[in-house]
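Example record

One chain of 128 residues, shown exactly as stored in the release files.
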Amino acid sequence: METTSDTSTNEGRTRWTFLTNHARVLSLLARDPGVRLRDVAAACGLTERAVQGIVADLEAEGYLTRSREGRRNRYRIAPEARLRHPVEARHTIGALLALLSEEADPEQLDSSAGAAGEDEGGRFALQR
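Predicted structure tokens for this chain:
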């Protein structure tokens, strides 16, 4: 069953968003490393197959690793990995995830902010 994104309009045009599906999937995996891809797909408005492809892309590029725990996968993010595009290459995945985290303080998220790291709960937090 194919899921449609909430970014579609009645005219069939798609509204744009600032984040790619890859960024959304990575953010959800960072928040909950044991989440099922079916749940990620539902949250992103994608098919499970599309999310599997995105996870394969992210794993192939070194942004995450996957390990088995019983019958489930567990995902570990590589926060030190750099963003791919040359314009953003000075920024890390950890910094992006800190920006997207619910605990992030917008006052601290500027160009002079320090690197992001993982906190005790496996979430990413801004470090000064």
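Notes: Residues 48-60 form the longest helix (13 residues).
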